[in-house]
Amino acid sequence: MKPALPLPWHAVIWQQWMQQIEDDRFPHALLITGLPGLGKRTLARALAHFMLCEQPNAHHPCGHCHACQLLQSGFFPDLHLLEPEDEGKAIKVDQVREMNSLVQKSSQQGGYKVVLIWPAEALNINAANALLKTLEEPEPRTLFLLVSDQPSGLPATLRSRCQYSPVAPPSLAQGQAWLKPQLTEEQNPEVLLKAAGGRPLQALKLAAGEAEQLRYLLLQVLEALVRGADPVEQASKLKSIPLKHLLNYLQSWLADSLRMGLAGDTAVQDSRQLPLYRQLFQLLGARGLLQMEQKLQHTHQQLKANPNIELFLESLLITLTQEMGHE
Ligand SMILES: [Zn+2]
């Protein structure tokens, strides 16, 4: 784990905080708000790392000091995380009390102590009251970072004890620049970002879901063919998958099936597909798999000259079915 850093569109709020720290007027509690998918937790973690680093350079944690090393190992006694014990449930008063007693002990590293609370709206009323008492009589060199998508769900008394720190979404250009290197070639950062309401982490989730859906669709088609389904009918289901994607998956699955057949289960790259590989190897054998790979390459070349994708898909699946011995 590298030191946590703010994301590009956090620059403005980060700069404000750095200025406050420099001017020695940094508050002891922040309420970091904004829509889901803007990286609020990343931002809170980045600030926590920065505060805990022993030799921060300019505006970032150094990455080398004892504190940074501890943070990177995932264990740091002066960083406390307060979140629901079960996802979607409340943060309970006992959790706040336990955190309070930990924080009241002096810092184990001699520096700052940081408490991250997310999602802050999950604090139940007793927990919020217990936290309020702590914030009313703050310990020195202790920072509370409350992260919330729905700050209106917090008691006003608690909100008033925190510096309000809204995270703004990036510009379209900035969001795209961040998103693009994390997408496949077929995925369009602008389309995804707009679909995600301008929230880059949300767009990334959409992208991952999209890729996963396509992979699943192809998997279903192959399994149907293995059971003897009609290849022309199955081919029509694949039209929505970008061709390059489809070829990449098919090629890697055929190659993986061959590896499994020749060198065993541990030789494959994507072990999730082992059941499919077993079926393919059983039906096609090493020879059939190699022939399919060649066919794939050959027709891919033809396709560049004459892009009739529908015909290509049908011909490919018919060949596959023939190789499986169904026809
Ligand atoms: Zn450091």
Please, could you describe this protein's structure?
The chain is an alpha/beta fold and 327 residues long. It is built from 13 helices and 5 strands. The protein has helices spanning 11-22, 40-52, 66-72, 93-104, 125-136, 156-160, 172-179, 189-195, 200-226, 231-237, 243-263, 274-305, 309-324, and strands spanning 29-33, 79-82, 113-117, 142-148, 163-166. Strands 2-3-4-1-5 form a 5-stranded parallel sheet, with helices on both faces. Helix 4 packs parallel to helix 5 (125-136) and helix 8 packs across helix 9 (200-226). The mean pLDDT is 88. Zinc ion binds at residues 53-55, 61-62, 64-65, 67-68.
Number of helices: 13
Straight-line N-to-C gap: 53 Å
Distinct small molecules bound, one entry per kind: zinc ion
CATH top-level class of the largest domain: Alpha Beta
Fold-level CATH name of the largest domain: Rossmann fold
Helicity range: 40-55%
Tally of discrete structural domains: 2
Spatially, the strands of the biggest sheet line up as 2-3-4-1-5
Q: What string, H for helix and E for strand, traces the elements in order? A: HEHHEHEHEHEHHHHHHH
CATH architecture classification of the largest domain: 3-Layer(aba) Sandwich
Which range does the strand content fall in?
A: 5-15%
Largest sheet geometry: 5 strands, parallel
Mean pLDDT: 88
Q: What is the name of the CATH superfamily of the largest domain?
A: P-loop containing nucleotide triphosphate hydrolases
Global morphology = elongated
Secondary structure category:
alpha/beta
Extended strand count: 5
